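[09:14] KT: can someone run the structure on this one? pasting the chain below
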Amino acid sequence: MTPPAEKPPFPEDEASSLLGKVIVLGLTFVDEKQELIERKQMHGIIVSVDPKKGVEISLRGMRAGEKYSLPPDLRPFQQKAPPGEYRLKETGEVIIDPDYAVSWTITRRSKGSVDSEGWRA
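[09:31] RB: done, structure tokens below
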């Protein structure tokens, strides 16, 4: 069994500064061989940031009314998104001047893994 990874730092002042910010999110799902399973894009407003529960996003546009959570890792939020138009490939939605544009690669674990959710970032 692989030992758990060390938790990234979670500065509270940085966490609270994310609340209410507009985010464009790109997710790439791969298997353990790093082969592509699927890609997803979404956008929304950051509504909660918690060191245990992670970053919760209230989605907008085609996914309005849904929520999506990211792990409690603030490293992808170190740099603001450059101003401009961000077009989601799947839906064609355009988000103008979001605060953050972040991407995550998520590895799907094989059956029998210790991760109860079946995914790891």
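[09:33] KT: thanks! The chain is about 5% helix and 40% strand.
[09:34] RB: yep, looked fine to me
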